[in-house]
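From the shared-data thread, chain only:
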Amino acid sequence: MEIKEQVSLTQFNSFGLSVNAPLFVEVTTSLALQEVLKDPRFENALILGGGSNVLLLQDLSRPVIKISIPGIRISEENEQTAIVSAGAGVVWHDLVMWCIVNNLGGIENLSLIPGLVGAAPIQNIGAYGVELSDVFYNAIGIGRKTGDSKIFEAEDCNFGYRDSIFKNELKDEYVITTLRLSLTKVNHQLHLDYGGITQTLDAMGVITPTLDDVARAVIRIRRAKLPDPSTLGNAGSFFTNPVVLKTKAAQMASLYPDMPSYSIDDQFTKIPAGWLIEQTGFKGKTFGNVGMHNKQALVLVNYGNATGAELWEHAQRVMDAVMSKFDIELAPEVNLIN
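Structure, as tokens:
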């Protein structure tokens, strides 16, 4: 375990921002993480996974701990379900593919979501009608102050839409080292009625879809509208989809009959942030080195050598426009790091 000084984080953030950290260490085991957390130099360190959900606004004044804990295995199983354990440093999409190869169902709709396993419970990742909380079994975290290991059951996590206790009451208190998911071995419940999956399966000529078919459909949809961070700096969806009262949604639907929306319950409706942004004219429009992507208005893009400050300035520009036009406040899904 090597501690390095003045390390560039360009390769460790999906925006491709040229930002430096004064100290940097990469850990591949829970024990190594516990040792680093004892080091007073890393007391206020930034915990970094895949760097796909952060916007680094400037050079850091604090050190970085890069989580690279590997490993995927079935830790428990019966005839119906299997508990899959994955290290926090596993690439999320690799976990999805591993589960599909092993005929384990539940996360196929979450294919191609960028980032590492350790970040998944923090923001309760979700896509195409499925959220992590639907299959969450438990997670193991290391206390940053105590160094003690703690198991978090589903009821401990206060999961919500792109939200959890790890973003609120326990923010920066624990580092996730292991995630466990409860997945189906038989009688898979496929979620096909969201985001054009059924239509894509039809176009693929699939009549009786398998887990692999659903994953391939999701991958096809995502690749058609989301830029690859390796060629165009971005963090995927920059904003969460706002949730509004049904009365507000009905009022908007009367003005915009083609507005997409998704009912959450008797009181609330979710409106796609990308649609709201598109109505303000920002889709595909560039401002210097930044802009919202021309195929998906929800994606903030670094088109060249933009700084984190420039990207955030544009995000605020978009937020102001949506507020002015719709009286709806957009919230960043991406974490802002000073």
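Residues 308-326 form the longest helix (19 residues).
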